[in-house]
Amino acid sequence: MMFAKLAAWSMRRPLHHTLIFHRVLADRDPMSPGEPTAAWFDDLIAMLARNFELLALSEAVRRAADGTLRAGSVSITFDDGYADNATIAAPVLRKHSAPATFFVASGYLDGGRMWNDTIIETFRRLDPGTHEIDAEAGLTFTLGDWASRRQAAGDTIKAWKHLPPAQRRANVEALATRVGGLPDDLMMTTEQLRGLDAQRGVTIGGHTRTHPILAAIDDDEARGEIEGGKADLESVLQHDIELFAYPNGKAGADYTAGHADLVRRAGFAAAVATDWGTLSTATDRYRIPRFTPWHTNLARFSIDLARCHYGQL
Ligand SMILES: [Zn+2]
Known about the structure:
single chain; 5-stranded parallel β-sheet; binds zinc ion
């Protein structure tokens, strides 16, 4: 069904696709079985390198602007700044000479942890048995096998996702006190970020400081997050940061035209969303669409993507 939508776009403008990733895990994780593994990612990038022109996102934006973007090109992007981007994904990308852009939320560098990961890591570690997490929201779980832990983490993330930021932070912090030993190495260190930035074909982009849903905070705060994230990365890397990704990235729900304007005025040259579609000369360069390669069946995914590109769907 999702491909039908993508295909409809591609029929009109069979041009450039931008893919979103978050993590690439060394092995399958029973708490996050849907996350790409290193082996899957290697196969995917090999397939893409064989069948498409892999373009740095900045190059695709430049070609879209001057009308030289052609069908059959793909850009690879990563959001959030996970350490595995540097340790697992980057070597695979290097192996295939594949360019990629990494959008990093600067506030989590050097030991930070995103709220959803704190929830997942807590439910991974809680003792078996019944736990009342948030009586008001009806979050009481009996934990045992991996399926029950995944379900509890998923339900809690869903229930807390749209709470006001301060309330959500308080809930997550209280939850985290129930277990010890939560990981502090999920996100990149500044050293890992510098190493990634130095790799040929790698671009680092802004993704705010603390990854708020921009539409849920006031404009001053949003400006501070957008400009602050850019300044943090520029201070670590000592060069301009020109691309931005909206946290969550859905037009209307997560960002508005006002935020696109803040991003432009902060000095970014282009910004990516998570809205569906392709990049063409007609695309607003502060609302570049992207999509997640969700098919675990690589053959199916590659056929669909190829057909979309060449207008056969
Ligand atoms: Zn993100």
